[in-house]
Give the backbone structure.
Amino acid sequence: MARGLQKEQAQAKSREKMAKAAGGKSQLSTRAAGLKISCPACKAPMSDYKNFKDHFEAKHPKLPLPAEGSVLPA
Ligand SMILES: [Zn+2]
């Protein structure tokens, strides 16, 4: 009985994992396609804020990092 329960839990877990992976992936590509931002300092195009933040911290460490809402299209 314990074995059956474990199997069920494992199946539920893998289903959850797969749904999460699929959902996360499609959401990510939608975001990448829909949101285009550019660095205010050097106009380099960025696919999302995380990308932009990494770029900004690496390339413009002396400038204050703009807030997410100020670089993303409204
Ligand atoms: Zn830049």
The longest strand covers residues 37-38. Strands lie at 37-38, 45-46. Residues 2-34 form the longest helix (33 residues). The chain has two domains: 1-34, 36-74.
